[in-house]
Amino acid sequence: MSRRPDILGEFTADHRAVTELLDRIEAAPSGAAERGELVTRLTDLLFTHCAAEEEHLFPAIQHDVPDGGGLVFGSIHDHLAIGQYLADLQGLGPADPAFDTLLRGLADTVRRHLAREEEALFPAARKALPAAERAALGERVRAERAELDG
User: Fold this and answer.
1) N or C: which end of the chain has fewer CB within 10 A?
2) Which of 130, 117, 116 is nearest to 64 (CA)?
3) Where are the domains of the chain?
4) What is the DSSP letter of 120?
5) What confidence tens digit (pLDDT) does each residue in 64-100 have?
6) Gyration radius of the chain over CA positions
7) Which of 136, 38, 125, 129 is nearest to 90 (CA)?
């Protein structure tokens, strides 16, 4: 019997997919059209991921985790910065000289954000939220994503 990941497993898988896309974007030649296409995919993934965290995980953390408010505030601050980078990148073509600079800023911000979540926020949530609640939240996230894809 396969075990479905809880909400933290879902979000950790998202983090791996984000990291993979960032690596592919950075490996593509500067100015290549492929970079623009990959940034569009990254944008979709990050906006979906951030919205799911803010809707499903952050409320539970804010109320049930010691210093949850501070952890959530830091993550929301990161989400806003990431969103600004993505919006700025969407307005540029991959050949634009500012594209590489913005991409480096985005990649640094995203990687720091993912590390902070995995080193502080997720362990705090795992400790404070019962396994059944984490599993139910994971099911909710999967159901919403299936509906969006569907």
Assistant:
1) N
2) 130
3) 7-149
4) I
5) 888 889 999 999 999 999 999 999 998 899 999 999 9
6) 16
7) 38
